[in-house]
Amino acid sequence: MASKDFHDLGRVDMALSRLTEAGTIRRVIRGIYDYPRYSELLKQEMAPDLMQVAQALARKFGWRIQPDGTAAQNLIGLSTQLPSQYVFHSDGPNRVYQVGRTKLQFKQVALKEAGFRHHETGVIVHALKSLGSDHIHEKTIEQIRKWLPAEKRKPVLRDAEGVTDWVYAMIKRICQEGANG
User: Cys-Cys with 85: which of 79, 103, 108, 165 at CB 3.0–4.6 Å?
Assistant: First the structure.
C-alpha cells in the first residue's frame, strides 16, 4: 500500500509511523508500506511482495505497468527462479528502487507495450516474449491456461489483438483451446 492510498485521512504520516513502530506495518521504501509476513518454515520475516510494491508505486505516481521477462514468467508460474531484479514496462519515467536486496526497475516504453486494459494480457505477452517463440511448448501453454481464469480469456484475446503475430497466435491457443477444456 502507498501512503497516497490514504490521502483523505488526516495525519497520515503520524499514523503510519505509529503503526510501523508497533510492528503492524513495515516501511518498504519511502511512502510504501506492507503488512509483515512471517514464515513458520523459515522461522523469519518474509521479504515484501514485490508485485504489490510495484503496483503501489504505480498507483502513487499514476503509472500503468506490466511485468517484463522473468517477473512475468515467475508470476504465471513458468519459472520458480527468483530474479535479483524485477523489470516493469511503464508509461512513466525510467526509475530504479532498491527493496531489500532486489531492484525494482521501471522502464519507459511505448503505450502499446504498457497500455493493455487487462493486467493479465501484459503479463502473458511479456512472459511469452521473454521465452521466445522457439521455447514455448504445450506445457507452457497449459501452465498459462491454468493461471488465466476462464472468464478472462475472451477479454485478454481482444486486448492482445495488436501484439506481434506469433505472440497473438500463442494467446489464441491459450484462450480458445482452454475454453473447450
Answer: 103
